[in-house]
Each structure stands twice: as C-alpha cells, then as structure tokens.
Design goal:
This protein has one domain (8-87). The N and C termini lie far apart (33 Å). It is mostly beta strands. The longest helix has 4 residues, at 51-54. A six-stranded antiparallel sheet has the order 5-1-2-3-4-6. It is built from one helix and six strands; from the N terminus they run E-E-E-E-H-E-E.
Length: 89
C-alpha cells in the first residue's frame, strides 16, 4: 500500500459506533508511521492508528465499503492498532 494513505477508510467492526472514517493527518517515519482518523458522523473524535495495522485487512479496508451488519458484534477498540483516542473540544 502506498504512502501517504488514502483519505477514506472502513473499519471492519464498529468503532465509536461508526465504520466510515476519514484521514485528518498522518506522520512518522518507517515503522513509526501513524494515521489520525475521525468518524464521518462524529468529527469530534480522533483515533490514531499505526500504519502497519491499517495496512492489514483484519481491521481496516481502504475506501468506504458497505459491510454486513452481523460483523458488528465485536469491537476492536481494545486491540493494538489503536494508540490513542481523544475528543477534540
């Protein structure tokens, strides 16, 4: 996958009640690269994800995709792909 990252991403499981995210900013070098995302419907929330985790199809897909609802039963909020979550005031 190319750097810089695509602007639109779909979470395979609901995160903060949402599945569709946009890139706010990105940075880092090499293995330390990260992407800050925000849910399209909740722009005040920010989620920072390591680029290495975002490239895996396990939790994220590039673009906005419609996924089956039955896949919503698990939240990956506690996984290692999320470094920080903050609300913007």
């Amino acid at each position: 996958m190319r750097w810089p990252p695509n602007r639109a991403w779909t979470s395979t499981k609901k995160l903060e009640g949402c599945r569709h995210f946009q890139v706010k900013q990105f940075g880092g070098i090499g293995k330390g690269r990260w992407i800050e995302l925000f849910p399209v419907l909740k722009k005040e929330i920010r989620i920072r994800v390591l680029w290495s985790e975002l490239k895996k199809d396990t939790y994220w897909r590039s673009g906005w995709l419609q996924l089956p609802e039955e896949e919503d039963s698990f939240s990956h909020e506690s996984t290692s792909c999320i470094q920080a979550k903050t609300k913007v005031e």
